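Sat 14:20. Reprocessing the chain from the morning session after the first attempt stalled halfway. Input below, unchanged.
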Amino acid sequence: MRSTPRRLTALLALALPVVLAGAEIILPPVFSDHMVLQRDRAVKVWGQAAPDETVTVSFADREATARAGGDGEWALYLGPFTASAEARALTVTGTGGATRTIRDVLVGEVWLASGQSNMEKPLGEMRGQKPTDNHGEEIAAADHPTLRLFQVPHKGEVKRPEVQMRWLPCSPETVDAIPFSAAAYFFGRELVRELGVPVGLIHSSYGGTMIEAWTPREAFRRDPRLEPLLEKAYFAWVEGVQATELFESMIRPVLPFTLRGFLWYQGEANVMVADGEIYRAKKRALVEGWRRAWNNPGAPFYFVQLAPFNYSEREQFPEKLTTGALPHFWEVQASCTEIPYTGMIVTTDLAGNARDIHPTNKRDIGLRLAGLALAETYGRTERLVHSPAFADIKRRSGGRLALRFEHTGDGLRTRDGEAPSHFLIAGKDGTFVEAEAEIDGDSVILHSPEVPRPRHARFAWHETANPNLVNSAGLPALPFRTDTLPVPLTRD
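Finished this time. Tokens:
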């Protein structure tokens, strides 16, 4: 088993020591009362005991044993188990006489939610942010006893042990006291409702942090473009959070707890430093690094497109950005869905206020993530969960371009009944102008008297774009461009 970092060893010793008959069994904090075990998979259980001691773990009708090594570390697999909302006990017993009992254990689906402040944003109040929409009513209604919440504190430093590094049943009191991620909460609530099984959510986010901080060291070393970043001094909004640091302090403490998949809402900090194509490599390193860490190459990884925001007007950012920096980042984010078993939700309609980097509508974020999971992970294909996406372009007579979309359902439409907005076209010279647009089934037809021979098209290619084009499920179309012209990310 991987050696335990000093910070985690201290945390384990402080959080969950049990000493009986002169022996000691220590379990990671992620094994606590009210936990959820992942269904239909062998569940890994690990911890520390006396050197060479034999440890037995029992749950339901299953039992497994392991012998601790010379360093006292042990690990075993138990199960698999079918989903169950019955509160049962998991017992760990050592031959030295110590027993550890975890009570009120359920079996269902377990997901890890991570990222920066938009994932961290809770239902209620958070300093410097507006609360989420209808937060009072949502908190009051958050009584879901089979939804269990586990909060990882910043840098793994437990300052509120009553709500951190322990499982808690979801209730109006706990979801507010933690305070728990709103996006993750709505995701979990929808899975409980749709699947009818318990759901466990591990939330590990830190506002203002870059993707590098969440990536394991081994992942940097697998890509020669990324390895030099290990020595780079990072700063976005959180000083001193270096590459790999949050993986070590906020992800490793729950490794390798058996789970289904990952939710990711991050990227703002990387836009601020004008990340372009390199973010694609960073994202792949993160996804593949986490999957390797969990020894689960097919673990689903669903993420959130950044919402519109006026980055170019913010002089305090590390780089002076253009209005095209965010659309280019959207393009890179969309390309990351080429990584197997990934998916992205589109959020151009959810910003509300393009001057607020923290959109308050986290309900639809969670529901769209849940829609992806229900369709792609759980096989619930009866509803349309993907946004309209550009498929191909054809020239038509009269100086018109026909853009065909996929994932349109019963056809394209606009959410306000007006003509489709935020389309641009250009000729050979690459000068883009606003286009007149009309819907034709699963296509949008573009033209402009200023461009008699159009060649290129762009859609929602502006940092504050809030286009009205949707599919029959009301999901917004994905921003795109048909050209490959250079996109300046910074300005003088």
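Confidence is low (pLDDT under 50) at residues 1-22.
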